Amino acid sequence: MEIPNEKAVAVDITESALDEALEAKEGYVLDVTLYENGGLKTAADGRTVLIPQPTDDTDDPLNWPQAKKLSILFVITFIAFLPDFNSATGVPALIPQSLQWQLSPNTIQYNLVGQCAALGTCAILTTILSNYFGRLPVLLAFQVLAVATGVWCAVASSFHSYLAARVLTGFGIVAQAGGMMFIKDMFFFHEHPRMINIWSGGVIVSPYLGPLVESFITWKTSWRWGFWVHTILSVIALVLLILVCDETWYSRSKQTGSRGPRQGRVHRLLGVAQWSAMRESGASFMRALSRPIIAISKLPVLLCVIYYFVNFAWVIGVNATTSVWLSTLYGFNGKSLGLFYLAGIIGTVVGEVAGHWLHDGIATYFSQRHCGRIEAEVRLYAAYLASGIMIVAVIVLGFALQNVWHYMVVAVCYGTQVVGIMIATTAVNAYLLDSYPEGSGEVGAWIVFGRTFGGFMATLIEIPWVTKTGAARVFGVQAGTIAAAVLVLVFLQIFGKRIRKAQGAMVFLS
Q1: CA 107 from chain center: how many Å?
Q2: pTM for the full model?
């Protein structure tokens, strides 16, 4: 079917991922009236073309009732919320732990560094295992591990035991690293930005809700209760996973008779059903192992990882050291610290609400001026706004800490930086998902890798750097790196489409 557009492009979007890759290169067209031939399935409005076109199979996740899809997304978002909730819970615990174990706060902070490294490493491992064993059994296995390590963190009797538990807790990142897989499996192209916005909201708010809870806990009782709270939430998530979630892997290739696992629910939870279905579809361990490598070989993916690494590093750096600055400069106690973290939560909510309309609004505006076509690079326009917001917030925050301005100035800047990263997160993820729909899990995992290793780096250097150089100068340098990262956006918007065409879609090994 031909699209009367700036350049007529033959598209048969009933042919699964190969044709979706063509749409990714040439631009997506959602208006059914712009297609010469009929017969396309549309959304309830009768006008929006469903991309990809769903099969007639009721087991196709794209055909599941919207209530089931949203319920699964809610559980995935809840599980994705927990790793960083656990990680950030350790921030207000730094001071009481340093007193209990007779170690400096900087030494105690190495547990955050180790956990960030584990989170980034496991992000890549997650996609490999999910593409070999299936999404659901991998999610289940790592959630069981998250419950066990949560208990370990709460009962650790020494710093070394606590450090080991924290590192292993980092392996519970499946829903963060694989969130894009679940969204791509269940939702259509026109739904992606809003679903990514919901899922990423759970990820972004968790580093602020964790310290809020732990700050009030350390104010009244032992720091260990913060990790008991995480453990209780992890058990709830495990129960919801078993009751609500389902296997979303589904083969859309016409070259194989296999579609999706059709055996009973228990078999799907344990991965028995997926094993036979995925082997029939041609999934092999070497193919699963090669997918992340093939994904990062695409220059737009690598550049987006670098952009996100630079921007999220300083978000984590600020959050991981806030309790130290507020305690030493402003004399905050546990109660005051807990209330301060509301600024990050408010920032997340503002970014979530703004993103709900911003990303779709930009895409709609562009399509109206380009014959109904939406190109992947359009998603990056929102990231310019995000970068500008973060630059201003970081600069003012540096001067506020340097000159010990009123703590409300610190709070406003703290929350404003979160607004920026919230918008940037959805923009970058939506861009990569539009660009490489066939590699949804891999591009999502690499973004998580960039985020966590940015946090690894920032957490390691933030306190000694500010102590030695001064907050104003340090945060000025950080703002400069955020500004430099904008060049990545400029480069991708000028050359991104040509690079994607030249490198081609992600073709995975058999």
Answers
A1: 28
A2: 0.86
